[in-house]
Design goal:
It is a single chain. The chain has 154 residues and is an alpha+beta fold. The protein has a single domain (2-148), classed as Aminopeptidase (3-Layer(aba) Sandwich). It is 27% helix and 32% strand. It contains 4 helices and 7 strands, in the order E-H-H-E-E-E-H-E-H-E-E. The chain has a 7-stranded mixed β-sheet with strand order 1-2-3-4-5-7-6, with helices on both faces. Helix 3 (86-100) links the parallel strand 4 and strand 5 (105-110). It is globular, with a radius of gyration of 15 Å. Bound molecules: coenzyme A.
């Protein structure tokens, strides 16, 4: 089933669908304008979406490329489409795209209580490397995770 889902770069016309995913996943979702700003081209962002065969956006993931590091902004899969491998494919797409641009180190923040996301990141090689105290608006700390890869042998 997951094979029928296409992972591709996000386009401006995807914003409504991405925002629906966002609202279905987070109690404090980003605004629609925040996604417009991310796609404005003013910042070094890369966003991917997961698209179902009927055209519905069922997941998205974003990253900022800052120097030689990738800073993950978010990954989210609509509840109707979870545990089908879509989150894994989104993260893999971001990692592959980064590597093609010479980016081998990636970092992100995740709630300690978010077992699903932590398991997904761990499976793909991220490791916990610190804590940001009271990072989230409700006061929960954030775990900092890093994926650090060695440079390819030339
Ligand atoms: C985290 C999230 C993106 C995972 O998406 P997904 O498409 O369901 O994940 P996948 O199907 O690709 O799962 C890949 C692996 O991650 C782990 N995983 C995913 N969901 C899990 C869960 N609920 N519990 C435990 N492990 C889980 C498993 O190891 C899984 O492999 P498996 O299915 O072979 O066991 C999704 O749960 C989500 O959108 N959550 C809400 C938004 C969110 O919290 N985002 C992260 C913010 S930091």
């Amino acid at each position: 089933m997951s094979e029928e889902i296409r992972i591709r770069r996000m386009r401006p016309e995807d914003i409504d669908g991405v925002w629906e995913v966002e609202k279905s996943c987070f109690p404090d979702p980003w605004s629609r304008e925040a996604f417009e700003a991310e796609l404005s081209g003013l910042n070094p962002t890369v966003y991917f979406v997961a698209e179902a065969p009927d055209g519905r956006v069922c997941g998205y993931m974003g990253v900022w490329h800052i120097l030689d590091e990738g800073h993950v902004t978010n990954v989210a899969v609509h509840p109707d489409y979870r545990r089908m491998g879509i989150g894994r494919r989104l993260v893999e797409s971001v990692l592959l795209d980064g590597r093609q641009k010479g980016i081998y180190n990636f970092t992100l923040e995740v709630r300690p209580s978010n077992e699903a996301a932590r398991a997904l990141y761990r499976e793909l090689g991220f490791r916990e490397a610190g804590l940001r105290k009271r990072y989230y608006s409700d006061g929960e700390d954030a775990l900092i995770m890093w994926l650090t890869e060695s440079l390819p042998v030339l």
